[in-house]
Design brief:
globular; Aconitase, domain 4; Aconitase, domain 3; metal-binding; 7-stranded mixed barrel; about 725 residues; alpha/beta; about 20% strand
């Protein structure tokens, strides 16, 4: 995974082979691959299914995208962190609309950004839908590479080459900027300290507006921001007893606080800022309430190294931020269970409690099914909100707490200055970090190299394992080509709205005790403590299929409220999605999904395509798609159908209770129009959302696996 490896260690920026120089580039399988664009290396991530296709001989296809120029001007104020810049740019680009496009940054403001700032911004491009966000090499890049140990002679050669081929950004001459398909402008002066939430990363809230915004969310009807709490219940307080003391919970109480550095907070400056703030807080006598589930998840051992060498790690520990591991943790739901006292209080008062984390995903229910409001914040703000114990606070006018003398301590009293952070960063990060990395690499990982590996051509499946098993994809493979089969009298499994994320489709978090996946594991002798998470069990298709559409926040219009349920129309029963799909498959009835705009947004998760495929879904009909997810659907053999512009299920008068039939022509072509006929006699046209011949080839073979079966048979 990209966030576990220092980019500078792997990157070359310019390759030299047999006296030939050419630019570095990368296509990877991790959503964090785009970070490398901050070093001036063109790179983007593709999904697992597409990657498997490349490994087996198919090219990775990409329709030539538009290139959007994003001009940065001005400079940010001293209280703005890199995450504030990231969230500000993310919101702006999301509003403008850059899905499926390349973004290139230019302008005087680019020179104000360090390399770690640039990689942080580039890393968030999946959140605003861009394929990649590119920062050309300039003097800032060269200086950074020199500090990280690049050979000076190679740097000189690199600079000469990039200038010769006009790939070097000259920050002194803005008159020769490239031509772009579109130009947008962002003034860094306009960006203020902020957080994002409570349910989506693009919903940015200025820190000064946080208290009023949260109160507005309580009032708003249930939606992307609202919780619709009755006015007379908004001030409810529930007392809890925890570790011998009494505490009070209310709407806005923080119950999860996670400092994470693997994604949009890979920037050392914000991690050090969190450590310095913790140090000042401890010295002022501030503390974090013990019932708050605090954690520290460094993106790599290097983060632990510089937090330790700078002396701030013990202070984070004193506030409860202990290192819990280096993999994906809180932001994918791998959070230690909240105490029973907290869980009971949340249920008793129907409280909107909060999680605050420095990750890049905060979809509702992702952290914990009982935590309804989740905010993305910079690491120092995560620590600050943990100390405050609530998001319902105005940091400008309300204190975090009091010191031993009873004096009020405000956020500005313990907020580290940019100069403090920069000094520690220079002393403890750049040179020492890369020296330690080099020494560690030269030593090698003896434990990894000593692992025993079975000597066999094929993987030896353990039939007793509940983590890894031979997937049922292979049960239906055919060696002979099969003509494209029509979809006849298909029922609608789910009728969904806009912005259905891959989290809704294939959750990665904890396995609910009443879910079909939990029943499967229980029947195999596991206790709830042993369930682990969907992310940990992605090697077991039986668990992942049962987890498909198992997100408790899934809003199916057939049900009318958030729940992982649907209607099995032949019987009229309301069932778990898996159970309904299982009945449909026994009856030989094909399935489709109706959806709105941006279907499949979020993480590039291949199980969000594999799961529906195993449920018997033959097609998805949506207003628009997130590109990577649409590629996954094609790769697994599910038809991505798109309503004509301006049309949707509502405008066509579809209830979702009809059955649907369509036939594919023998000669499919990109963007071909197909006719769908319903059981009510309605006929309407849709677009087969294929972009090129490679996608059509995969789909016509029934997906990647059938293609492989025929190629190697």
């Amino acid at each position: 995974m990209a966030h576990q490896v220092n980019l500078e260690y792997l990157s070359r920026v310019v390759f030299e082979e047999k006296d030939l120089l050419f630019p570095d580039s990368v296509v990877g399988t991790d959503s964090h691959i785009t970070m490398v664009n901050g070093l001036g290396i063109l790179g983007w991530g593709v999904g697992g299914i597409e990657t498997e296709a490349v490994m087996l001989g198919l090219p990775a296809s990409l329709t030539l995208p538009e290139v959007v120029g994003c001009e940065l001007t001005g400079s940010s104020n001293p209280f703005v962190t890199s995450i504030d810049v990231v969230l500000g740019i993310t919101k702006h680009l999301r509003q403008v609309g850059v899905a499926g496009k390349f973004v290139e940054f230019f302008g005087s403001g680019v020179s104000q950004l360090s390399i770690v700032d640039r990689t942080t911004i580039a890393n968030m491009c999946p959140e605003y839908g861009a394929i990649l966000s590119f920062f050309p090499v300039d003097n800032v890049t060269l200086k950074h590479l020199e500090h990280t140990g690049f050979d000076k002679a190679k740097l000189k050669s690199m600079e000469t080459y990039l200038k010769a081929v006009k790939l070097f950004r000259n920050d002194q001459d803005n008159s020769r900027e490239p031509e772009y398909s579109q130009v947008i402008q962002i003034n860094l002066n306009s960006i203020v300290p902020s957080v994002s939430g409570p349910k989506r990363p693009q919903d940015r809230v200025a820190l000064t507006d946080m208290k009023s915004d949260f109160q507005a969310c309580l009032n708003e009807k249930v939606g992307f921001k609202g919780f619709q709490i009755a006015a007379e219940k908004q001030n409810d307080i529930v007392s809890i007893h925890y570790e011998g003391s009494e505490y009070k919970l209310s709407h806005g109480s923080v119950v999860i606080a996670a400092v994470i550095s693997c994604t949009n907070n890979c920037n050392p400056s914000v991690m050090l800022a969190a450590g310095l703030l913790a140090k000042k807080a401890v010295e002022a006598g501030l503390h974090v309430k013990p019932y708050i589930r605090t954690s520290l998840s460094p993106g790599s051992g290097m983060v632990t190294h510089y937090l330790s060498s700078s002396g701030v790690l013990p202070y984070l520990s004193k506030l409860g931020f202990e290192i819990v591991g280096y993999g994906c943790s809180t932001c994918v739901g791998n959070t230690a269970p909240l105490s029973e006292a907290v869980l009971n209080a949340v249920k008793q008062g129907d409280l909107v409690t909060c999680g605050v984390l420095s990750g890049n995903k905060n979809f509702e229910g992702r952290l914990c099914d009982c935590v309804r409001a989740n905010y993305l914040a910079s690491p120092p703000l995560v620590v600050a909100y943990a100390i405050a114990g609530t998001v319902n606070i105005d940091f400008q006018t309300e204190p975090l707490g009091t010191d031993a003398t009873g004096r009020n301590i405000y956020l500005h009293d313990i907020w580290p200055s940019r100069e403090e952070v920069h000094q520690i960063e220079e002393e403890h990060v750049v040179l020492s970090m890369f020296k330690a990395l080099k020494e560690k690499t030269e030593m090698g990982n003896k434990r990894w190299n000593s692992l025993e590996v079975p000597d066999s051509v094929l993987f030896p499946w353990d039939l007793k394992s509940t983590y890894i098993r031979c997937p049922s994809f292979f049960d239906k493979l055919t060696k002979e080509p099969v003509a494209l089969q029509p979809i006849e009298n298909a029922h609608v499994l789910l009728y969904l709205g806009d912005s259905v994320t891959t989290d809704h489709i294939s959750p990665a978090g904890s396995i609910a005790r009443s879910s079909p996946a939990a029943k499967y594991l229980t029947n195999r002798g596991l206790t709830p403590r042993e369930f682990n998470s969907y992310g940990a069990r992605r090697g077991n298709d039986a668990v992942m299929t049962r987890g498909t559409f198992a997100n408790i926040k899934l809003f199916n219009k057939f049900i009318g409220k958030p729940a992982p349920k649907t209607v099995h129309f032949p019987s009229g029963q309301t069932l778990d999605v898996f159970e309904a799909a299982e009945l449909y498959q026994k009856e030989g009835i094909p399935l489709i999904i109706l959806a709105g705009k941006k279907y499949g947004s979020g993480n590039s998760r291949d199980w969000a395509a594999k799961g529906p495929y195993l449920l018997g879904v033959k097609a998805v009909l949506a207003e628009s798609y997130e590109k990577i997810h649409k590629d996954h659907l094609i790769g697994i053999g599910i038809a991505p159908l798109q309503f004509l512009p301006g049309e949707n299920a509502d405008s066509l008068g579809l209830s979702g209770r009809e059955t649907f039939s369509l036939t594919f022509p023998e000669e499919l072509s990109p963007g071909v129009t197909l006719n769908i006929k319903t059981s009510t006699g309605k006929v309407f046209s849709v677009i087969a959302s294929f972009e090129n011949d490679v996608e059509i080839t995969l789909f016509k073979h029934g997906g990647l696996l059938n293609f492989v079966a025929r190629k190697f048979s």
